[in-house]
Write a structure and sequence with these properties.
The strands form five sheets. A four-stranded mixed beta sheet has the order 4-5-6-7. A hairpin with a 2-residue loop joins strand 2 and strand 3 (84-88). Among the domains are: 48-101, no CATH class; 111-232, GMP Synthetase, Chain A, domain 3; 234-278 and 350-383 and 392-438; 495-556, no CATH class. 46% of the residues lie in helices and 21% in strands. The longest helix is centred in the C-terminal third of the chain and has 41 residues, at 448-488. The radius of gyration is 58 Å and the shape is elongated. Helix 16 runs antiparallel to helix 17 and helix 17 packs across helix 18. With 559 residues, it is α+β, with helices and mostly antiparallel strands.
Length: 559
C-alpha cells in the first residue's frame, strides 16, 4: 500500500504541475491508449450479442416462429446471421421468456408424437385420432430430415389407399419435398437415405413408392428410376470398384521393392447375376424292389338240354314240389390265368448349382516404372571407389536392366491375376512401361519482402494500433518534459516588480553571509565549482549538523 500511495502522490504532483492544456491532451492520450488496448486484445468480455440458444443451429422454419414471438413482445434488438439469432447479452433472458410464452422454442424429436398422444380423448372418433397421429408422424419425419446435413427444409406427406376385395389390399405412397442448403442440388446418396428413412418409418411402405422432390432444381426422384441414376447403388459399379482396389493393393505390395511405381488395374465383370443351375439324371436300368406272381384256374359246368316244359317246371322251389328222379347231362369248361408284377425304382441324380454373380472375367494391369530406378540399380551394382565420383551409367547396361525389370514385373503380376484360357498369351494382361524422369522444377524461394508485405497486409490494424499507442506515449513524455522546462524559464519572461525585488534584497541582507545556509544557497545559486555534489559533500564535512538541518528543510518544503 505504501508503494501505491507514493505512486499516487507522484502522479498527483505531476498532474498539478501541468498546464490546463497539457492536462487535457494527457487525458485524451490516456483514453486513446486504453481504447487501442481494448481493440487490440478484444475477447468475449467485449461481446455485445450472444446466440439465443447457445450456438445450436436454428432451421429457417423455426426462425420464422421465433421472429414472430419477438414481434409479439416488441423485442427488435436482434440480428439473424445464418442459422443463428443473436440477442443482447443483458436481455437474453427476456428473449428466451418470449419464446416460452409464445411456444416458439424449436421442437425436439418425438415432441409431435407426444403431443398427439397427450391430446387423445375418449370421445373422439377413430378417424379423427388416426388423422391426428398421421399429421404428427409427418411432422416428426420432416423434423428428422431437416436435421440431415445439407437439407435446409423438408416436408413429408404419405397416404394409404384401401383397395378392398378379398383379401383386402392397401397401397402406401409417400412424397417428400426438400430444399438443400443454399443453391445446391441434392445428391443421389441423400435421396436414397431419405427414401429408406421414410419407408422404414411407415409399416408396409416400400422405398420404390417414395418420391423426393428437390425445390432448388425442381426435379423429382422416384424409386423406379433411382437405381439406374445412382452409380453408388449400381451393383456392377460397386463390385467393379471393389475388385480394382483389391488388386491394386495386392500388386502394390508385391512391387514394393520398386520405388516410385504406379499401378492401375481395370476389371471387366461377367454381367450375369443370380444364375442357378438345376439338373436331373435318370439311370437307364431300374432297380427292382419287389415282385409278385399270381396263377388262377376256373371250371364252368352247364346242362346240355333245356328244362321240363309246363307250369310244373316254372313253379317255385318248395317241399311239395316233385323231384325229378333222373339228372340232366352237364358240360364243363376250364380256364387258367397267370399274372406277374414287379416293383422297380429308376435311379436319378438331382443337382442344383448357384453360380457367383458379377465375377471378374478379364483383368488388365498397367505398371509404370520411373527411369531413375534403373539408374539406381546400376549405381548399386557398380559402386564407385572410395573418394571417387560415381561414373555415368552405360545406356546399354540401363537397357538391359530395364528389360530384366519389366520381365520380373510381368511374371510377378501375372501370378496374382485370374487364370486365362489355355492357348491365350497371359502377358497382354500386363503392360509395363518406363516413365521418363523429368527435371525437377525448383520451387521459388519466398522473398522476405513479399512475406513481410503479406504479413503487414494481414496485421496492419494491429500494427496501426500499436503505433498509435507508442506515438501517444512519446507525445505524453515530450509534453511532460516541456512543462518542466517552462517552469524553469518562467522567471526570465515575467515582468519586473520593484517592490518584490526590494523585499528579496532585504531578505538576503538579513541573512548573514557567513552562515552555512546562506553559503550553501549562494553556492547553489552561483553554480560555481566543478561539481555541486562534491561541494555539498565538503559542506557536510565542515559542519554536519547545520548541513543536515538545511537538507531536511529543503526536502520537507513543497517549493
Amino acid at each position: 500500500m505504501d508503494f501505491l500511495n507514493k505512486a499516487f502522490e507522484q502522479i498527483k504532483d505531476l498532474f498539478v504541475s501541468m498546464t490546463p492544456g497539457s492536462r487535457i491532451i494527457a487525458g485524451l492520450l490516456v483514453v486513446a491508449i486504453v481504447t487501442s488496448v481494448a481493440f487490440l486484445f478484444q475477447t468475449n468480455m467485449f461481446q455485445k450479442d450472444v446466440p439465443i440458444l447457445s450456438g445450436s443451429p436454428i432451421a429457417p422454419a423455426d426462425q420464422k416462429a421465433i421472429l414472430a414471438a419477438f414481434a409479439s413482445e416488441t423485442l427488435d434488438d436482434y440480428e439473424v446471421i445464418g442459422s443463428q439469432i443473436y440477442v443482447p447479452r443483458s436481455r437474453r433472458v427476456d428473449y428466451i421468456a418470449a419464446l416460452v410464452k409464445n411456444n416458439a422454442i424449436p421442437p425436439d424429436f418425438h415432441d409431435s408424437m407426444s403431443d398427439a398422444i397427450g391430446q387423445a380423448s375418449p370421445f373422439e372418433s377413430e378417424a379423427h385420432r388416426s388423422d391426428r397421429q398421421k399429421v404428427a408422424r409427418e411432422k416428426e419425419m420432416a423434423l428428422v430430415l431437416r436435421n440431415m446435413r445439407g437439407i435446409e427444409y423438408a416436408s413429408v406427406q404419405y397416404d394409404i389407399e384401401d383397395k378392398g376385395g378379398f383379401p383386402r389390399k392397401k397401397v402406401y405412397t409417400a412424397s417428400v419435398v426438400v430444399r438443400p442448403s443454399g443453391s445446391e442440388e441434392i445428391d443421389f446418396k441423400t435421396v436414397k437415405s431419405v427414401q429408406n428413412y421414410v419407408a422404414h418409418s411407415i409399416a408396409g411402405l416400400s422405398a420404390e413408392q417414395v418420391s423426393v422432390t428437390d425445390l432448388n432444381t425442381r426435379r423429382t426422384f422416384s424409386g423406379s428410376d433411382n437405381d439406374l441414376a445412382s452409380v453408388n447403388d449400381d451393383p456392377y459399379a460397386s463390385r467393379k470398384k471393389w475388385f480394382e482396389e483389391h488388386w491394386t493393393e495386392t500388386i502394390d505390395n508385391a512391387l514394393r521393392f520398386i520405388s516410385g511405381n504406379n499401378v492401375t488395374v481395370n476389371v471387366e465383370l461377367d454381367p450375369e447375376m443370380n444364375r442357378i443351375e438345376k439338373g436331373i439324371k435318370y439311370d437307364p436300368r431300374p432297380t427292382p424292389l419287389a415282385s409278385m406272381a399270381e396263377k388262377s384256374s376256373e371250371v364252368r359246368r352247364t346242362p346240355t338240354n333245356a328244362g321240363e316244359p309246363g307250369l310244373n317246371a316254372q313253379a317255385p322251389q318248395g317241399p311239395n314240389r316233385a323231384t325229378a328222379l333222373s339228372g340232366a347231362r352237364m358240360s364243363e369248361q376250364t380256364s387258367e390265368s397267370n399274372r406277374e408284377e414287379t416293383l422297380a425304382v429308376t435311379n436319378q441324380d438331382y443337382t442344383q448349382k448357384q453360380v457367383a454373380s458379377l465375377t471378374p472375367k478379364r483383368v488388365t494391369v498397367s505398371v509404370s516404372i520411373p527411369s531413375q530406378y534403373y539408374v539406381d540399380v546400376w549405381n548399386s551394382r557398380n559402386p564407385p571407389a572410395a573418394g571417387q565420383q560415381a561414373n555415368a551409367p552405360d545406356p546399354g547396361e540401363l537397357k538391359k536392366i530395364e528389360d530384366e525389370t519389366k520381365k520380373t514385373v510381368e511374371k510377378t503380376v501375372v501370378t496374382l491375376l485370374p487364370e486365362q484360357a489355355l492357348g491365350d498369351d497371359p502377358y497382354p494382361q500386363v503392360y509395363v512401361w518406363t516413365a521418363p524422369q523429368l527435371p525437377e522444377t525448383p520451387t521459388p524461394e519466398l522473398v522476405v519482402a513479399d512475406s513481410a508485405m503479406a504479413w503487414v497486409a494481414t496485421n496492419w490494424q494491429t500494427l496501426a494500433t500499436i503505433g498509435f499507442a507508442v506515438v501517444g506515449l512519446m507525445m505524453l513524455r515530450s509534453m511532460l518534459s516541456s512543462g518542466a522546462g517552462a517552469a524553469e524559464q518562467s522567471d526570465a519572461v515575467k515582468l519586473e516588480d520593484p517592490a518584490a525585488d526590494q523585499a528579496k534584497d532585504d531578505k538576503k541582507e538579513d541573512q548573514p553571509d557567513g552562515s552555512m545556509q546562506g553559503l550553501l544557497k549562494k553556492r547553489f545559486a552561483q553554480g560555481s565549482g566543478p561539481n555541486l555534489k562534491n561541494e555539498l559533500a565538503d559542506m557536510v564535512r565542515e559542519d554536519p549538523d547545520t548541513a543536515l538541518g538545511i537538507l531536511q528543510t529543503w526536502i520537507g518544503s513543497p517549493n
